[in-house]
Amino acid sequence: MTLFKLSVSNMKKSIKDYAIYFFTLVLGVAIFYVFNAIETQTAMLRISADTRQVVQLMSKIIAGVSVFIAFVLGFLIIYASRFLMKRRNKEFGLYLILGMGKRKVSTMLFIETLIIGLVSLVVGLLAGIGISQLTSVLVANMFDADMSSYSFVFSGSAFAKTCLYFAIIYVVVIIFNTFIISKCKLIDLFQNGRKSENVKIKNPWVSVIVFLISVVSLGYAYHAVITDINDMYMNDLYKLIVVGCVATVLFFWSVSGMLFRIVSSMKNVYYKGLNTFVVRQMSSRVNTNVLSISVICLMLFVTICVLSSALAVKNSLNEGIAKYARADVSISKTQSSDSIYYDEDEMGNDSETNDLLKKLEVTDGKSIEDVYSENNVDLGSYFSDYVDVHTYTCPALTIRNYLGDEALMDSFGIDAAAWSGFDGTEEIISQSDYNKVAKIYDKAEIQLADDEYAILANYRMFVELRDERLQEGKEIEVYGKTLKPVITYCIDGELATQPINTGVFIVPDSAVEGVQFAREYFIGKYADQDRDAIQDSDTIIKKVSNKDVICGLITVNTKDSVKAASVGAGAIASFIGMYIGLIFLISGAAILALKELSESTDNIERYKMLRKLGVDQHMINKALFSQMGLFFVFPLALAIVHSVFGMMVSTKILDTMGAYDIAGAIGITAAIVVIIYGGYFLITYLCSRKIISE
Which residues face 507 on adjacent strands? Predict the structure, then answer.
């Protein structure tokens, strides 16, 4: 009981010392709970079955990532415990002198650790439960879900998982603390703060040479990203990452030696106020923390790129669906079984294969409505408006022939001549059929002369290439007729219910007159129905297509299924990116904060000496703020420079996902970094000021 009272008394006395520790634990617990509660939080949302599967998959991936996050948080908590123990070395030494055994000191420390852990766990869980309600709004916005039946939800699984991981981490921390206490020596506990740090002043010429090597290496990596990004393979990217990491370490190693030399040569600056003290302190800290500062810089770099990319994906998901998935259902059907490729050696001659081929032959030549009618489904009755159109292919008009190998290689970074995918034929639609589609999509119709064509596309990488050919006035040949562009840019849009359209050629009706069409499209908008009725309709339409047509002869895309498919990958990447980005940001800021607090503890004697020399508290606080600000800004500044070029790579990847709102995402990321990173800086400064003023 006495040890418990002593532990509580120590905590009250050292409450400000625990501020960073407590703040980190609460943030970690809250974030851990929020992301693991996503599946439970979305259980009450009215979403489609396809979307539900995406959310379940996302939850499983998050559960796997949480194991990695638990290791990161565990390392962070152990690191924070080291600081707290170092801060109280003299106190522990005094207990030992007064006759308290190491076992009792360990027990007292165990009680303190347990109390702060339980308090932070409770506060973190309460914060997480509150914040997680907002997660439902985020998911609902991302998947366009109905929240009419939503109510407050508590996730028992996320609660249990958070408590379990937190308990495991804390058991490791307690064992670590007990081991440290058992190995400590009394003389070390009292002299720890008096030991002088042996700081070696680096040779200035060596520092300059290493600095130049680091700058040149970073310049090489940056230049490669800017100029060779399209031709870059993964192995090349890995090499650049290694070069960047090594160059970052060399940069901070050299700058610690150069900092003192450069500023000390500027007499007007160096001898002003306490700048002499600040510069020496900064040089010493960077010099002794090169590796940790480099790691923090790289963590901040990953945070900025991952968070920005995740937010950019999230912001673009619904926008793309709303813009391009205009119809509720699109059903496509190939004209004949000849267009279905199968390998006889692989498929064999079993009865199942024969039945499959017979089924393809039976459906061949029938329209989409005919197939559904045979299954007692009046397809048209489900829609308030629908169209039935056809598309064609021409052997002379292929992707390679139209765009050219050089342009394809420049854009996609692959050997276009060696990739057979570019030998595929372009899809063609007649003017009259396109105008039917345009009408149902509420878009402008088009008028073509007998020798003109246009292109419908929305996939940015292909749009840029096709616009170049259109601006050149590139002519095409379709079944013996030569056509020229009617406009110098692609018409923005899609043919069927899909968010990505690489290109459909619109030609005069006369160009395809008498030609056998290759594919049929049935595109419709449901009559006014509620969500449940629409999902029932989707189910009926999908079941008929799955029952009667095999091997992709008929494909059905509904707005919900397209949304789940396109949003699914983006949503998973977005949530995982935000999860990892936030943890990395908290970890990097917490490590810096703990290092600064540890340095302030070690430098108490130096600040006492400044007071004895007549320096007032205001000047000391200003010097402390300056050196702490520089220490926080150093890794962040280089991380921002890294991120400028890193985001160029991210933008290239995001282009394939249709995420273009990079500026807005970067702005939100900057705000998050300022709030969390700045919050750690402010708490660290206030705690350090208290330490040195004691």
Answer: 430
